[in-house]
Amino acid sequence: MTDRTASDRIVPLIVDRWSPRSFDGAPLPEADLALILEAATLAPSAYNYQPWRFLYSVHGDANWDLFLSLLVPFNASWAKEAGALVFVISDTLMRNDKGANPNHSHSFDAGAAWATLALQALSLGYHTHGMSGVDFPKAQTELNVPADFRIEAAIAIGHQANADLLPEGLREREVASGRKPFAQVSAAGKFGDLPA
SS3 helix, strand, coil % of the chain, rounded to 5? Predict the structure, then answer.
């Protein structure tokens, strides 16, 4: 699964996107972060409900230490040099003037927003790294997230730095990871038609 080749007809931005851990520690300019988050809001969503919410901290601001403390120690060890940290949150309910109903696709839609965010960041010269290594109960409490909203993931954003700045055990892993061939994860028909 180390191959990362793709058809030359796929948009290069998609092929070039990957998740480094080495960042240069420079705070992300607010204007760039605003543009990246605005791009995320243009993602598709069921019924155009747009269930995503984004909480962010820029490197060194008043919320930085709190945001870092919500990551598992492994992720905090390298994400401390990101230019910004973003928590992606989704509304688990579809609310309207008649009440609220479960939103089956809230995580799916938030994932579309994350992908759009990552591609916009790359187009501006930044890299992103999504993380599920989060202390979710602590984050829910510390960020005052209501119980009917789900913290999906955290995202580190910043300028990529040299892998030598990472702890020794991470340096050799600082490469774009491979992808399974689409034929291995796609099939016409039923689930049982997928390759084993």
Answer: 35, 20, 40
Residue 78 within any structural domain of the chain:
yes
Full residue range of the structural domain in which residue 106 is found: 25-160
pLDDT tens track for 43-94? 999 999 999 999 999 999 999 999 999 999 999 999 999 999 999 999 999 9
Handedness of CA 130, 143, 78, 156 (dihedral sign): positive
Token pair belonging to 70: 């919500």
Spatial CB neighbours of 91, under 8 Å, sequence gap ≥ 6: 49, 51, 52, 53, 103, 106, 148, 149
Give the three-state DSSP class for 88: strand
Span 140-182, pLDDT tens digits: 999 999 999 999 999 999 999 988 888 888 888 888 888 888 8
Rounded to whole angstroms, the Cα distance separating 176 from 19 reads: 7
Which of 147, 41, 148 is closest to 86 using CA atoms? 41
pTM of the model: 0.93
What stretches of 115-176 adopt beta strand conformation (E)? 127-131, 149-158
In a domain, 92, yes or no: yes
